[in-house]
Every structure is written in structure tokens, then in C-alpha cells.
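Backbone geometry:
***
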Amino acid sequence: MSHVEKRTTVLHKAVVYSLLLVLLMPLLATLLYSISTSWSATILPSGFTFKWYVELWGDARFLAAFGRSLLVCFTALALSLFLILPLLFVINYHFPKLDGVMNVLILLPFAVPPVVSSVGLMELFAGDPLPIIGTPWIMIGCYFTIALPFMYRAISNNLQAINLRDLMDAAHLLGASTWRAAFMVVLPNLRKGLMVSVFLSFSFLFGEFVFANLLVGTRYETLQVYLFNMRQGSGHFTSALVISYFIFVLLMTWAANRLNKDKA
């Protein structure tokens, strides 16, 4: 490697590491504040404690909100997979020309702002014949529409990458039926696309606030609504909540990557 190339490499690394440091600084400051006893007029905290984390994870209201968020997110994702996988298989294998139409349709949830959608949903589902405002069912339906574009696009790209028609033709030549080939041959090849779509959607849904606050609020308090309701409390406590949220998402991502490598 020449001297010029070494200097260029060092410069590129310096830019990347500097950008990474800038992005991590707010998170590091939040972490430091969450374990400090007090931090006001000094550069560094006057002391350190895990009191706020103990208080947070001992709070029954927080644990209930955390569990509700997990329940709603995983139910919406399971529903999305159950409906999207067969749809994608049929479109890509039997009706590939419909893919362009679906690419337009799946973007429709983003065409209307969440606040406007929430007002319409409140008008539609506040009373008979389907009064589900304030229940987890309205959240599951909303989260399904939010996850749909992420999951559809990621799985569709994966299907195109594995050459679906050739795989199916090979399976048919070996005597497999269409649906047996789909489950035994195609589905295992979609593992990476499925994991990417599920965890990308989960990270987005787990932090969703607008629909949760407007459609259910404290009647079915999720984690983000809980964080909003606790904003007037101790800053150390809310910082501990934010860091706990980040660590949980980080662990979920790490576990998905580890599982993906183990099965590769």
C-alpha cells in the first residue's frame, strides 16, 4: 500500500469514527445521566448509582406497559407474516406482473400522516358496530399496516434474489407439490429476508407513539405512552427508561444476527 493510499485510509477512518462519536454522544450522555446521583453544575456527575434502574424495573406499571408493547408488536408481526408470505409467493410465482401494483398499494399507509389516520380511525371505530378504540385490537390493526411495507419489500427482494421459479421447477421435477416445495424449499431460503423484515419492523413498531397515544392512551398503556406520561418525573428515571429501551432493541438485533450466523 502506497503512502497516499495509507493517508486516504487513515482519513476515511477518522471521518467514520468522528461521525460515530458524534452519533453516540447523546446516548452516552443519557447513559451517564441515568446512573448519576445528581448532575447539574459540574462537568461530570457528583456520584453514580443504579437506583433509577432498580426503581424502573421494580415498577409494576412499567413492566405492564413493556409487556403490552411486546404483545401488540409480536401479534401484529405474526399476522403480517401469516398474510404476506402466501401473498408474496402467489404474486411472484403466478402473477409477477402484479408486483408493480403491490409496490404502489403497500406505500398507501405512508401517504396519510398518522395524526390524520388516527382521527379517521377514531370516527370509524369509536362506536357501533365495532367499538375497538382503547383496545389492543385497534393497535394490532394499525401496526399491521405500518409493518406491511417493510416486510413486503424485504421479503419480495429476497424472493427475487433466490430465483423462485427455478427453485420451484427443480422441486417439481423431484416430485414435490407446489405447496410442499414452498414450505420445504422456498421458505428456508427466505430465512435472512424474514429475519431482516421482522426485526426492522419490530424496531419501528416498538417505538411507535402517535397511534398508541391517540387510539388507546392510558386505557392500554404501551411503553412509549408510559414514557410520555412519565416525562414530568425524574430525568434520571426517564433516562434509565430510554437506555433500557435501547439496550433491549440492541440485544434483539444481536440475537437475530447470532441466530442467522448459526444457521448459515
Q: What stands out?
A: The chain is about 75% helix and 0% strand.
